[in-house]
Amino acid sequence: MGMTITEKIMARSSGREKVVPGELVWTDIHSVMTMDFLGRQCFDKFRSLGKTEVFNKDKVICVSDHLVPPPNQRFANMLNEWREVVKQHDITNFYDLGRQGIAHQIMVEKGHVLPGTISIGTDSHANTYGAVGAVGNAIGVTDAAVAMATGKAWFRIPKSVKFNITGKWQPWVMAKDLSLHIMGMMHWNGHLLYKSLEFTGPAISSLSMAGRMTLCNMTVDLGAKNGIVAPDVVTERYLRNRTKDQWDFVTSDVDAEYDMVYDIDISDLAPTIAMPGKLDDTVTVDKLIGTKFNKAFVGTCTNGRLEDIATMAEIMKDKQVHRDVNMILVPASQTVYLEALQAGHLETLIKAGVAIDTPSCASCAGLHTGVAGDGDIVLSAGNRNMTGRMGSRNAQVFLTSPSVVAASSITGEITDPRTFDI
Amino acid sequence: MIKGTCWVADDYVMAYDIITSEHWTSAIDPDENSKIVMSGVKEEFKNEGAFKAKGFTFIVANHNFAGGGKSIEHVITGLMGAGIKAVFATSFARLQFRNAINYGLPFITSDDDMHLGCKTGDELEYDADQGIIRNITQGTTFTSVPVAPFVSQVAASGGLMNFVREKIAKGEPIE
User: Based on CB atoms within 10 Å of each CB, which residue in A103, A255, B23, B92 is the most buried?
Assistant: First the structure.
């Protein structure tokens, strides 16, 4: 019996020929990410293990994303403590305000995750790293401290589930719609809990790196351990100028064993929306046509990339954001911000009446930059819609793709981008 | 053997509601986190120290306890600070399941639907060695799914930090 890609990565990272689901192993970690609001506590815990030097100064990646730019004195003070501790440990890769981005975007964009290896981060959307064929896993401060000290983390080998995605992507339908479709199909009731999700098939081969990142990013919200796309020509092209590390095209064996296999044809996939409160309560856009909202948000580690911004710009060119809607765009990183600027997308969006803010997690973590107030109805291209996620516990958040947010923001009510006059 | 009263939770108790967002950026500290733990779950736990004041030792939950995808350890330290010694559920969200293992707080699954016959305030007894949960009030007994040896070792060390610290101090490999 062969192994799945995740099993192979776990096996080679733990120095074994073979691993089987259920087995508990300590693996080598390629890189460990921590960020501003938990990072100082990671380093404190790391030192309490009796170590002063991290396992590899190039492989502990520090990012300022949740608290920047500081909206209040408390955050400003936390950031100062954070900067001090990063400096003290002589960390090579520190993406602080000015060079910042959302940690998961930085990890992939700057080549800190590598196909065939394991990277971990102290934020739940570390599953994003699966987009380049790495095992990306979210962990707490304790695991990060242990990894900083030893270069290792413990894992139980997960069972794998295969999603074979076929068909042709239709205009204005995005990877986010597939994510939300799977969310609605699988629910939160435990089908995918602890599992490794592998995305494969022709519609994945034709999916951009940005789309793969969206898809893998949201696997954490399915309860899965990781989501992964095997490296291919898209991966190779993407990584060419981002890393000098050697990697190989690790793939699942043809006789690998899967707990479940699902076939999804995306040819008739419709733009999909998660209703406020629960991610798995999803509907297709036609069920909500005409629903009014007053805030629109595009950004986050799920949908703040160049492709997302380009889609918005294409839809919103020479149009105006509806007078009853406030719309904010927060690019996922400084690099994305610059590329969107150079491509002219930001000019298009500013002319349309979109407010653009500096890269950060922004209101997705409910911390700053456009948080929701009482009674607000938000149409968001972010990743979570639970009560209080974006601020007030009396606000409602609908989750959807950037194309739905863009088209709807012009009409002031939920609109199908496929029928919108673009 | 641990003995005490239990709180019976609903399905899908979210990590978000166990620790609400305004506290995510606070220090990871059992005393501090326990003051606000569960404040978003139920109106009766809203005020500072309300959950802790109930003096529960156990939580009995159903599906996906501590779900919603939040990796913050405040969830676990908050429960521990409030006096919780074990949580029994049909399933746990993986991020917090992992954190619980790292802190040595037993997150125990059972194939028996113990939440169905269990009422808040019932007195329970948990025998970790035998994997037996007795509901003394109701006179019922449940069996837990066995815990992996590694999980027991970490718990016996008082958490992953101690487990790894001991190994580093002795110069032992971590494998």
Answer: A103
